[in-house]
Automatic annotation (TrEMBL):
<feature type="domain" description="Amine oxidase">
    <location>
        <begin position="13"/>
        <end position="428"/>
    </location>
</feature>
<keyword id="KW-0285">Flavoprotein</keyword>
<keyword id="KW-0560">Oxidoreductase</keyword>
<dbReference type="Pfam" id="PF01593">
    <property type="entry name" value="Amino_oxidase"/>
</dbReference>
<comment type="similarity">
    <text>Belongs to the flavin monoamine oxidase family.</text>
</comment>
<dbReference type="InterPro" id="IPR050281">
    <property type="entry name" value="Flavin_monoamine_oxidase"/>
</dbReference>
<comment type="pathway">
    <text>Amine and polyamine degradation; spermine degradation.</text>
</comment>
<dbReference type="GO" id="GO:0006598">
    <property type="term" value="P:polyamine catabolic process"/>
</dbReference>
<dbReference type="InterPro" id="IPR002937">
    <property type="entry name" value="Amino_oxidase"/>
</dbReference>
<protein>
    <submittedName>
        <fullName>Amine oxidase</fullName>
    </submittedName>
</protein>
<dbReference type="GO" id="GO:0050660">
    <property type="term" value="F:flavin adenine dinucleotide binding"/>
</dbReference>
<dbReference type="GO" id="GO:0046592">
    <property type="term" value="F:polyamine oxidase activity"/>
</dbReference>
<keyword id="KW-0274">FAD</keyword>
Length: 472
């Protein structure tokens, strides 16, 4: 059995940032157990069409404000290559099924109506919840293809969050697409190099163990025992669980004794967003690539059906790659079918927009975040009207087990910087807990010795008295 002060389950950005803070504060016998063969979690690159593409997180959101985004600071420090992304122009590049672009006036009017409707709906929900009424769908839902497309952009691609959005208020409204040969994940490797032993970019430190699938966390008054799928057993004083909210909702990880009801109910109430970027490689470029044309939209009778498109020419000129974003039910549907069927559907949509003579894609890449048992989704998505107690219960520790991840970030859930800051916050809370335990330990030892003496009046103390008096 391997013994450490702290075990961290998961080597995503929260797990790595948590471990870094702990080591920097003198807790050097940290052990990181990662289920896969790499670090990064939902930050993952893959080579496609001779360029690296980001399967998961791909943007640094929240740049240019008065306060600096910590992930943007890391990117600047390690010279991560990025491209400015402005998808506000996408609403003026909306194609119908005949390949015509909706006039700018119609698109702008539809977008304004959708925004106004969303604000009214939110206010209605807030009013009903504050008055104790059951929230109902009181406003009309989008019906036409362009209304459905814009509704998808507002609530799925741009993420439905309660205004004001903390990321943009605190850090700024600009967003940058990561376009670096090393991938977004290089930020994690650079962080890891600062506290783990590495050689030529490879982490060789035995405090990081890959391919260790944790299945059980067993805690007692004296410590925590962690058991993995391959039969390995690890022991620590504390554990930090940085698994995603989707994994916590699944049956991959069990806790002994079971987590309290308030904890499990909070975990199950949090929504999980599935966000799928499908990459298509073509022999040549056939789509517009001028200013303001990086993103375009397909209006279909089915909401979210191959709606949001982006070309990669700004990030990688000459790559001839298109990306289409699906979410939630569409993501799950596509994950369940073959890549060939998905390519057929995508090509049908593209030929609606650009004509039947366009070339067929030569390759396709379909990430499967929902069916990945180590992720079970892309990021947390708290209900727009929810009690703050829900998040507090999700992030609260249970005994010696602490929880971290983007889903525990009070202001930035769903973002990379949310996961990064959550790891730091959790490790600081744990350090404070350890400090308090050390301060209390002498008192606890003294109290325990008094208790043991008091519990033996008829044996130890009584016998000694009899011996002294000669009656023994």
């Amino acid at each position: 059995m391997s013994t450490s002060s702290i075990i961290i389950i998961g080597a995503g950005i929260s797990g790595i940032s948590a471990a870094k803070v702990l080591v920097e504060n003198g807790v050097e016998d940290v052990l990181i157990l990662e289920a896969t063969d790499r670090i990064g979690g939902r930050i993952q690159k893959q080579s496609f069409g001779d360029v690296p593409v980001e399967l998961g997180a791909g943007w640094i959101a929240g740049v240019g404000g008065k306060e600096s985004n910590p992930v943007w600071e890391l990117a600047s420090r390690f010279n991560l290559r990025t491209c400015f992304s402005d998808y506000t122009n996408a609403r003026f590049n909306i194609y119908d099924r005949s390949g015509k672009i909706f006039p700018t006036g119609i698109a702008a009017d539809s977008y304004k109506k959708a925004v106004d409707s969303a604000i009214l709906k939110l206010k209605s929900l807030e009013a009903q919840c504050s008055s104790g009424q059951v929230a109902e769908e009181t406003l009309s839902s989008p019906k036409t293809p362009i209304e459905l497309a814009i509704d998808f952009i507002l609530h799925d691609f741009e993420m439905a969050e309660v205004e004001p959005i903390s990321t943009y208020v605190d850090f700024g409204e600009r967003e940058f697409l990561v376009a670096d040969e090393r991938g977004y994940e290089c930020l994690l490797y650079k962080m890891a190099e600062e506290f783990l032993f590495t050689s030529h970019g490879n982490i060789l430190d035995n405090r990081l163990k890959l391919n260790q699938v944790v299945r059980e966390v067993q805690q007692s008054r004296n410590g925590v025992v962690v058991k993995t799928e391959d039969g390995s057993v690890y022991e620590a004083n504390y554990v930090i669980v940085s698994a995603s909210i989707g994994v916590l909702q699944s049956d991959l990880l069990s806790f002994q004794p079971p987590l309290p009801r308030w904890k499990t109910e909070a975990i199950q109430k949090c929504d999980v967003m599935v966000y799928t970027k499908i990459f298509l490689k073509f022999p040549q470029c056939f789509w517009p690539c001028g200013p303001g044309q990086e993103f375009f939209i397909y209006a279909h009778e089915q909401r979210g059906y191959f709606t949001f498109w982006q070309h990669m020419e700004n990030a990688y000129p000459g790559s001839n790659i298109l990306v289409v974003t699906l979410t939630n039910e569409q993501s799950k549907r596509v994950e369940a079918q073959s890549d060939q069927e998905t390519m057929k559907e995508a090509m049908s949509v593209l030929r609606d927009m650009f004509g039947s003579t366009i070339p067929y894609a030569t390759d396709i890449l379909v990430p499967r975040w929902w069916n990945n048992r180590f992720q079970r989704g892309s990021y947390s998505n708290y209900p727009m009207i929810s009690d703050n107690q829900l998040l507090q219960n999700i992030k609260a520790p249970v005994g010696r087990v602490f929880f971290t991840g983007e889903h525990t970030s009070e202001k930035f859930s769903g973002y990379v910087h949310g996961g990064y800051l959550a790891g730091i916050d959790t490790s600081k809370s744990l350090l404070e807990e350890m400090k308090q335990s050390l301060l209390l330990q002498p008192l606890l030892n003294f109290t325990e010795s008094l208790t043991l003496t008091h519990q033996k009046p008829n044996s130890q103390i009584y016998t000694n008295v009899n011996f002294i008096s000669g009656t023994s």
